[in-house]
Design a protein that fits this description.
The chain has 93 residues and is mainly alpha-helical. It is 60% helix and 9% strand. The protein has a domain of 64 residues.
């Protein structure tokens, strides 16, 4: 069952994050002196990575809280022939 938070997450990812990136992130790079650009770019990359991992954690916690079955997440573990551990998650399309 879809929870209202699912809609908020999509709204944030599809609408708010791109607006924020266009207005704040790229502006910081554009307005930076040439010698500051690499440092600011690295800071922006780290900020984006932290935000994405935080969102991933929120989604996992939401799924645990709602007791959603992992099978409906759209990914599954696959095993290579002769391999005893899962290699990766691949989308079921």
């Amino acid at each position: 069952m879809i929870h209202p938070f699912d809609h908020l997450l999509v709204l944030g990812l599809a609408v708010l994050f791109p607006i924020r990136a266009a207005t704040f992130g790229y502006r910081r790079l554009r307005d930076a002196p040439a010698d500051e650009v690499p440092r600011r770019r690295l800071a922006l990359y780290r900020q984006i990575i932290r935000a994405q991992w935080a969102l991933a954690l929120v989604v996992v916690l939401l799924w645990l809280w709602q007791r959603r079955p992992w099978a409906v997440s759209g990914s599954r573990s696959t095993r290579a022939p002769g391999c005893s551990t899962p290699l990766a998650s691949s989308p079921r399309w």
